[in-house]
Structure formats: C-alpha cells, structure tokens
Amino acid sequence: MGVKSWKLGDGVELQEGEYPQDAKIFMSDEEPGIEIPDLVPNTVRLLIVSKPLKDGMEAVNRGPVQYLPLSIYNHKKRLASSDYFIVNPLGTVDVLDTSASEIEYLDGQVVRVLKHVLDRKKIAHAPDLFRLKEAPDSYVVSERVLDEWRKIAPKPTNITFFVLDVPAT
C-alpha cells in the first residue's frame, strides 16, 4: 500500500484501488511458531483477526468499519491461511471523560492515554467497535461483541481484554 498505509492506522477509509486484492503478510522469522492466533499481533498496531472474530464483530456492530481480506503466509512463504481480515473502524469516537482519565500531553497534543475513563453519556450512542478520539490506535469493543466472541468454539486465541471505567453519573 505504500504511503497510504497510514490510513489503516488512523481509521481513514480506503478508497477503491488503494487496498491490494491479494493483500498478504508474512510470519516473522523472529517468531518460530506456525499456528496463527485469532487476534494476530503485529508491529504496526493493526486489528488483524480471524474470520470468526470478524463475523462476531460484523454481526452486532452498526458503526462504520471496513473489513479488508488478508492472507497470511508462513516462514517458507507458503499460504498458511486466507481467512483473516484487517478491521478498520472508521474515524474516532469522543467517549473519554478527559478530566477523569489520565492523559499525557505534549504541546497540547495527546501523547498517550494512561488511564481510560469513559463518559457514560457519550458512550451511550457509541458503536460496538470503534477507535478512541484521543488514541486512534486503541480499539474498543462492546459487551455485545464480547458476547458474540464467547459463542465461538473453539475459544478464540490471543485476546486480552481491559475493562474500562464507566463511572455512574
């Protein structure tokens, strides 16, 4: 994708022709394993998921998102799976209670969010999958998405959840 790859990290919609039809990634030689988890770790913080995870998100989410097909090749450059997707939630959602959250700023710009506290009123209308306005490389999923994922058998792999604070009003 070249110079347009930044769009996937910032939640910007890819236009026709910007995403390769035969998109692929290769397993890292630094990681010798051959099994592919449902949530694929990567150095560029993209949301790369298996088809079951994608289907679970797609079943309940009503927010704007692109699901971009992706093939994963093993260390020997052979196809390991073609059932993966880059999930690109479009835009960001303003749901943080910035006064209760711990946010590190530099020259008025957010550097990172150390503690996420959601605003109950703002979160009420948020989609089930989105990026945070203050941290677009962070992804938030709702309980509805988690409920869909809990139905998957066998249990999805490589997923870690952090429960975000949503204080009572």
UniProtKB/TrEMBL annotation:
Domain Immunity MXAN-0049 protein positions: 28-161
Q: Which InterPro entries match?
A: Imm11 (IPR012433)
Q: Which superkingdom does the taxonomy of this entry point to?
A: Bacteria
Which named protein is this?
Answer: Immunity MXAN-0049 protein domain-containing protein
Tell me the classification of the organism that encodes this protein: Bacteria, Pseudomonadati, Myxococcota, Myxococcia, Myxococcales
